[in-house]
Amino acid sequence: MTSIDWSSLEAAALAARGRAYAPYSRYHVGAALLDDAGRVHAGCNVENASYGLTICAERGAVMKMVSEGGRRVVAVVVVTGGDEAGSPCGACRQVLAELAGDAPVRMLAVDPAGQETQRVDSSVDALLPRAFRGSLVTGA
């Protein structure tokens, strides 16, 4: 079992948030995940004028993990701005359900100085109850 260094994950997600490309929504998001090999993978949202082509931070981090040889998410941190912590969207929840099982998910909101304004701890199963999972996860 990989131990979770929440401080490192939070720092990686916050740093990734600073690299977000969000000229349309101005809603900058950073995500970091820990894989079962103990590696941290971070991603940020990347918007596009054709809005459906936008990639969320969480999915970006998962794709990075897989491209670097990872297959299992152990923990996730998502950092957004404002007073209330943002939650992964439906598409991100589904991608996490496939590769994260019931991993813990920490959602943080930060002010412009990067100081935490809200923290919400949850899990993939709580965010997407009764998730559809493929046979690779369920073993069916």
The overall strand count is 5
Number of domains: 1
The average pLDDT value, as a whole number, equals: 94
Secondary structural class: alpha+beta
| Main sheet record | 5 strands, mixed
The appropriate CATH architecture is 3-Layer(aba) Sandwich
Give the C-level CATH assignment. Alpha Beta
CATH fold-level name: Cytidine Deaminase, domain 2
Low-confidence stretches: none
> Roughly how much helix do the residues carry, as a percent range?
25-40%
Shape: globular
Q: Which short descriptors sum up this protein?
A:
Cytidine Deaminase, domain 2, 5-stranded mixed beta sheet, 5 helices, 5 strands
Written description of the protein model:
This protein has 5 helices and 5 strands; from the N terminus they run αββαβαββαα. It has a single domain (6-130), classed as Cytidine Deaminase, domain 2. The mean pLDDT is 94. By secondary structure, the protein is an alpha+beta fold. The protein has helices spanning 6-17, 57-67, 90-100, 124-127, 135-138; strands spanning 30-35, 40-44, 73-81, 104-110, 116-123. Strands 2-1-3-4-5 form a 5-stranded mixed sheet. The protein is globular and about 35 Å long.
Write the layout of secondary structure elements.
Elements: H1 6-17, E1 30-35, E2 40-44, H2 57-67, E3 73-81, H3 90-100, E4 104-110, E5 116-123, H4 124-127, H5 135-138
Parallel strand pairs: 3-4
Antiparallel strand pairs: 1-2, 1-3, 4-5
